Amino acid sequence: MIDDSRPIFMQIAQMIENDIVDGVLSEEAQVPSTNEFAAFHRINPATAAKGVNRLVDDGILYKKRGIGMFVATGSRAILVGRRREDFYEQFVRPLAREARKLGIDAEQLLAMMARESATHVDHAIVTEKEGAL
């Protein structure tokens, strides 16, 4: 959904990126047209085009003249790589800094992560079992 927290064209680009990373849009798949984005989100077509063109400039999408925009080969790997680096900068580095402040060493931090991971797996199993009932 579109919100007021960031420019709309950036949100359109992010939506397309999310669909590529999630596998909704596969490589070489055609993406919706700027007019389709504009109609669906009730925004100006020029705004939608700005978001799509940003991805063209980044090499994530490419244009087939007279046909539309398509996901470039290798786009998912590029986006996942960028997001992993962003994840490191936004979450891992601050986590490590805070752990050092609290005297939590790497082994303790890994144990905490393993505990969280096990909790998530346990929750997923319970949810799956409940769905089967």
Describe, in plain words, how this protein is organized in 3D:
The structure is a single chain. By secondary structure, the chain is mostly helical. 67% of the residues lie in helices and 6% in strands. A two-stranded antiparallel sheet has the order 1-2. The protein is elongated and about 60 Å long. The mean pLDDT is 89.
Strand order of the largest sheet: 1-2
| SS field, number of helical segments | 5
How far is the N terminus from the C terminus?
Answer: 33 Å
Percent range for β-strand residues: 5-15%
Mean model confidence by pLDDT: 89
Counted beta strands: 2
Strand and helix order: HHHEEHH
Q: Which descriptor suits the 3D outline? A: elongated
Q: State Rg.
A: 20 Å
Helix content: 55-70%
